[in-house]
Amino acid sequence: MRIDILTLLPQLLESPFADSILKRAIDKGLVEVGIHDIRNWSTDKHKKADDYAFGGGAGMVMQIQPIHDCIKSLKSERTYDEVIYVTPDGETLNQRMANELSMKKNLIILCGHYKGVDQRVRDHLITREVSIGDFVLSGGELAAAVIADSVIRLLPGVLNDETSALSDSFQDNLLAPPVYTRPADYHGWKVPDILTSGNLRMIDEWRLEESIRRTRERRPDLLSDED
């Protein structure tokens, strides 16, 4: 898989891909991540990539020209399955979407900034708009990193135990069950006896029951989701 992220602030995306699971995935050659400064495609001598909005109002708007030329340049090198724009009014990211995107080959993620992008970018260049929640960030960079993380960790070979992703919260619309580790008794706080019983069938049943119980208590909306 290849993920290309378009941004006005590439330095904000250095850290998320420089350590832990994402770095290992890149080092293994399981994913390529390209971070592109949109200003490099600006035709303005000062590399300006934003301007005032037509009709007035506060805030600047990202211009269409550098974004279009950047996307066109990337598309000349490979075919992309999705060109994603990160925006608060997009489709909310969930595990199902992450699963779907992990099956794609090449993705572009465009980070918004200021008051967003020229609407013509959204009308003609974007194939999917994604939000990570009902709130506003200073820019789309952190949200783009969240989307990339949620997708990359699902790729085959990225996690040491490939079954661990399948037991994450929100797979099968259930929250993950409680987990424990050693010691089994810490200051009188004990691990449930079933987990130390060695009976794998009963442990699996317990985990499923706990997942359902936890989901019913914390996210009952997931249990009623029929989609």
Descriptive overview:
The protein is α/β, with parallel strands linked by helices and 227 residues long. The chain folds into 2 domains: 151 residues, SPOUT methyltransferase, trefoil knot domain (Alpha/beta knot, 3-Layer(aba) Sandwich), CATH 3.40.1280.10; 57 residues, Trp Operon Repressor, Chain A. 32% of the residues lie in helices and 19% in strands. The protein is built from 8 helices and 9 strands. The strands form 3 sheets. The protein has a 5-stranded parallel sheet with strand order 2-1-6-5-7, sandwiched between helices. Strands 3-4 form a two-stranded antiparallel ribbon. A two-stranded antiparallel ribbon has the order 8-9. β5, α3 and β6 form a beta-alpha-beta unit. α3 packs across α5. The chain is elongated. The two termini are 27 Å apart. The mean pLDDT is 93.
Write a short abstract of this structure.
The chain has 227 residues and is α/β, with parallel strands linked by helices.
Query: Which blocks of ≥5 consecutive residues have pLDDT under 50?
Result: none
Give the strand tally.
9
Provide the number of structural domains. 2
The CATH superfamily of the largest domain is known as SPOUT methyltransferase, trefoil knot domain
Query: Into which percentage range does the β-strand content fall?
Result: 15-25%
Intertermini distance:
27 Å
Strand order within the widest sheet?
2-1-6-5-7
Order of helices and strands: EHEEEHEHEHEHHEEHH
List keywords for this structure.
two-stranded antiparallel sheet; Alpha/beta knot; Trp Operon Repressor, Chain A
